[in-house]
Task: structure prediction
Amino acid sequence: MKKYISLFAILLVLGGCEKDEIETWSELSYVWFYVNKYSSDGPVVLPTKSFSFRMADPEDLFTEDGMTASYVLFPLVTAGMPSNKDRIVNVEVEQDKSNSQTRYELMKPVIIPAGELSGVMKVKIFKTPNLDNDADSVSFVIKDSEDLLVAQPWAYGEPMDCLVSKMIVMSRYAQPSWWTSTWTNTYWGPFTQEKMDVVYIVLGSLDNPDPGDTPIFQYNVYQINQYIEEHNCTEADGTPMAKIINV
Result:
């Protein structure tokens, strides 16, 4: 009889532990910056946002204090259960701007809305004169709050660095990754804002003009060169813009 009583007591204890663990998990929620770009063979990249006033959709721009402004949006995601109230995300500036002229405002409070498992952090940025010459950046970090704890999700067996997000702001074109190789610099010439203007006007995007299809690439180059010739395009210093060498 004692044997059965002891077994029953053990089952009660185990059952109680399992219930406590479920309740504890349901009360915890974690938050991090959403990352949507994955490496095929390793951890994800940092959730960095680049914004250029030169490339911005006019509908996303507005005027405040006599200056052009816009918003940069950072998606946030959580793990856990939704809440019946808005939850505060504790976001702080980790590394501030490098130029005193750069103007931005982290819109607070940053929240996960009631009933939701995701939210958005908004940063208001202004088109200040210094951005015409150089990009500037600000890094933000998520820290624990009363409502949400920080989380370090894993991917490919390694932790993702999703608690810090970097904002890069400029009034110029960012040099695309496809225009950084020795081959591109040899045939396209040095990257310039003026030539990037031509690429965008002719092709309607800043995507790589070489999609891996030689005839399409040659046709893209032909169109760009035709535009340069017909419009007598020049660089910022007034020198004639060099055509792209078509191979």
Summary: Residues 177-230 form one domain. The chain has a mean pLDDT of 82. The longest strand covers residues 67-79. Residues 61 and 163 are 28 Å apart (CA to CA).
